[in-house]
Design a protein that fits this description.
about 300 residues; alpha/beta; eight-stranded mixed sheet; 10 helices; about 40% helix; about 20% strand; globular
Amino acid sequence: MKENLPLVSILIPTYNQTEYLEKALMSALNQTYTNIEIIICDDSTNDEVEKMVTRYTANHKNIKYYNNGGPLGQRGILNGQKCFELSNGEYINFLFHDDVFHPNKIEIMVNYFMNNKDVTLVTSSRNRINKNDELVYIHKFLPKTTKITGESLGALMLHIMENIVGEPTTALFKKADIEDDIFSYKGRGARSYVDMAIWFKLLLKGNAIYIVEPLSSFRIHGTQNTNNPIIHLLGAIDKYYFLTDSYLNKDFIKSKEAYLKILRRWFNLYVGKIKELQNYSPKNDKESKELIEIKEDLYFCYSQSIKCLIAL
């Protein structure tokens, strides 16, 4: 039966840790869906990941490991892009190295695709777990499994300024539906909310299935990129361009009134980032140079939003 099933690529970009990675890898290997390839691209500065993965490659020919010889750059974004480019599957699901899949995740999601030709994205509720694998809470945004139009889901994400689809680990999609840089939206590369960039592109092309059953677990721990203040600053910039480019292209935001309403919400939500940026002390010269660019981008976003809001 395996040859009759479409190939699914599970993409694991990793960097300098094996404790959670091994659990992530095992959750991919233990899927009830059988036609899977696992792509691991390693940004590590040591050989710990390679040694750990090598223990599995001898017995699991569907694991493909690539050592990048060190970080490719952009806080793992280029590593994720490499995973995508090396994949051969009809369907794609990222698995971040500290997250885990539930055993039947891929099987359930592929079945929804096979039975819904108008769908470009399948997602689900997800668990939040801590470093000890203990459940913190379940993240749900609908009370039951539902098909949602791409336009309405994209608009909702922009209106509430929240990634309700979920982190990259959460969703399955078709590779053919990504025609350009996977982490860009309207030709502009995202630098923090890379997952939202993917979801917006997919939602422009079709509808989404939301599965109320949690099918993956997102781990919360102290060493994640999401705890970096610079990531928060970049996230504010990403969201400004998501909503502005959506309005200019009349994709999810159709009217000027709706745009200004969301823009005001963005401004009120992120105005404190200016103070955060001014008070942040860079850790090294490289980060200092990056902050100069971030400051220019963030100030531009604020100045443009003020101009639009004052013109009301």
